[in-house]
Amino acid sequence: SLAGFGSLMQDVLWCFSQVKGTIDTGVTEADIISTVEFNHTGELLATGDKGGRVVIFQREQESKNQPHRRGEYNVYSTFQSHEPEFDYLKSLEIEEKINKIRWLPQQNAAYFLLSTNDKTVKLWKVSERDKRPEGYNLKDEDGRLRDPSMITVLRVPVLRPMDLMVEATPRRVFANAHTYHINSISVNSDYETYMSADDLRINLWNFEITNQSFNIVDIKPANMEELTEVITAAEFHPHHCNTFVYSSSKGTIRLCDMRTAALCDRHAKFFEEPEDPSNRSFFSEIISSISDVKFSHSGRYIMTRDYLTVKVWDLNMENRPIETYQVHDYLRSKLCSLYENDCIFDKFECVWNGSDSVIMTGSYNNFFRMFDRNTKRDVTLEASRENSKPRAILKPRKVCVGGKRRKDEISVDSLDFSKKILHTAWHPSENIIAVAATNNLYIFQDKVN
Amino acid sequence: MLGRGLKRKLSDYEENMAGLSSAFDSSRSLPYPLKRQLVLNMCLTKLQTYKMLVEPNLHRSVLIANTVRQIQEEMRQESNQQPVNICPGIAPASHSYAGMESPGISLQLPSGINQQESHCCDLRSVEDPIENSLLIVSDDDMSSAISSILKDLDFVEDISPPTCLVPTGDDQPKFPENTGLKLEDDRQDLKGAECVFGSFEISNSTSYLKDLAIDDIFEDIDTSMYDSDFCCPPLMPPRSPSLATEEPLKTFPSCNSSSANNIQICRTDLSELDHIMEILVGS
């Protein structure tokens, strides 16, 4: 059922649908999910993990016989996208962890996606094969070479049906263009180019050309001791192929227009909110660092995530966001501890729903939050095995800030900071969400009435 | 990477720092200079730890360096206003933070911290151990810590980087002309193939979707024969060199020199094969 347009928070009841991954209490590091992304139709859902693998789930066709199993996602393809590498020149190990996956819009029967680790971007083609050629001249069906002297007839191989096989093949490898760690990739609306961003530079690629990239942003100072700011995320405008934004560790967003200059070091727009003096602390700058930036589907707004808040900006207003949502403000009084244990550097992502009316982001204790931009209502939900009965409705969670703790509330000090939800995804047109909780992938849907 | 003795010291230190951080967070009457000193020490410890890594995290290092700069600036302004020692309770300069150049951890571990672990609310007992443990850090120390870590992050760039097209003035980002031609040629080659493989997914859209290289069209078809070392002497003299199909014909092993009849059959077969190959490669 198509929901989303104008749907209000109180009308949507989120239910558990599926969970993927092991139940084992010990987590294998390689299984930790590092990125989640629906494709443009929502038919496919891809995850990348720390072990360099990509798993793609496909939504099954809805069947009239089992209407309650509204299009479950099942494994469609699994492949090893990146392997660990060793850079001999710098004596560095290059992690195979998949930082981001981005789908290309589908233009034929095959699916294409970009996956990247810290250094190398790869274009993968995922296609189905349900026929195979039979009747080779020189080999028999088992692949053994036939005795040439026994061959008396020349035949053309024919295609015969076979069991469906899904194969993933690397079509392009875009390597050796990033000295620093890649944090973002974004496909351009022209579908011919894409960009990859690392801490200090952004490169523009043409899908056809793997041995050249065009450097469009470079903020590396001549003297590294003068470095005070890094690039944290970047994204192309959904409709204007010449426009992109990138966020920084100082809480600023720059919008650039590639038509004005080849090297976009001068921004067209600069978004920054003046600091609130009452909230100033030693950690102000650290918590202002933007961990994710996303254009709305309409292209009129951008959303940014910093440590404690999610902000929505209107492209026409640079001096402050139009909306600010508190994700977990109760952590403001714990910043020193969170700095000490490095949690303050956790990079949470944020997503829009299909109609840009609701935004979602993760938190700790396997909590994730949704904010309805129209009604200004928000909800905290939890991804846990306890709430994982089929079609069980998720109960809103609440963190108790001080004073008396109610029965269902959890106190700040009881939060599990090792259970962080950094990556979530929202189906492009329906109320289906994918939430990555360490090594498990949860899929929730709204209740079918 | 760290010796076990150092690791144990570090984990003890981490536990102590955790206690101090909670003290920072929960206590409202902890003097500001002490809080600042605590944060500064944490920053410097982190930078020191990162320096020992082969590849420090650039993002975190910059954020921490900025925090140190912020504190440094504050302390400079204060010392300009009043020359008095900012933290009177802190141990004398002999405990000053050693330079970042020394390989091991040169920090003096906090003494007497263990007693105050669970008594964060008791401010008096908290303050004294903190004062005892926190070290004087000079302005120079802070500067050297910052520049040291940032210098480390100036990674040796690849000697021959991928050709990044250098913009000439305000040119639009363009890709070189010859690349355009290359794509053109490939597209021509594919047109013939498209007719034969109509049922495949080849479409008229962006060429990467068409499996640009010719080889890929034949992915499904076994071409290992042409790749193998096993090679019969060619029966027929080489055909006219203009044919792109010549290569496979040379190694076609079903032509056997043993009988004249076979030669005849081969000739016909080869010409048919020629014809087929011409269609397939669209020449």
TrEMBL record, chain A:
Molecular-function GO terms, alphabetical: protein phosphatase regulator activity
Keywords: Repeat, WD repeat
PROSITE patterns: PR55_1 (PS01024), PR55_2 (PS01025)
Gene Ontology cellular-component annotations: protein phosphatase type 2A complex
Alphabetized Gene3D superfamilies for the sequence: YVTN repeat-like/Quinoprotein amine dehydrogenase
Family: Belongs to the phosphatase 2A regulatory subunit B family.
Name of this protein: Serine/threonine-protein phosphatase 2A 55 kDa regulatory subunit B
Organism: Ptilorrhoa leucosticta
From TrEMBL, chain B:
PROSITE patterns xref list: SERTA
GO cellular component labels: nucleus
Pfam families for this protein: SERTA
All residue ranges annotated as the SERTA domain in the record: 32-79
UniProt-recorded name of the protein: SRTD2 protein
Naturally occurring in which organism (per UniProt): Ptilorrhoa leucosticta
Name of encoding gene: Sertad2_0
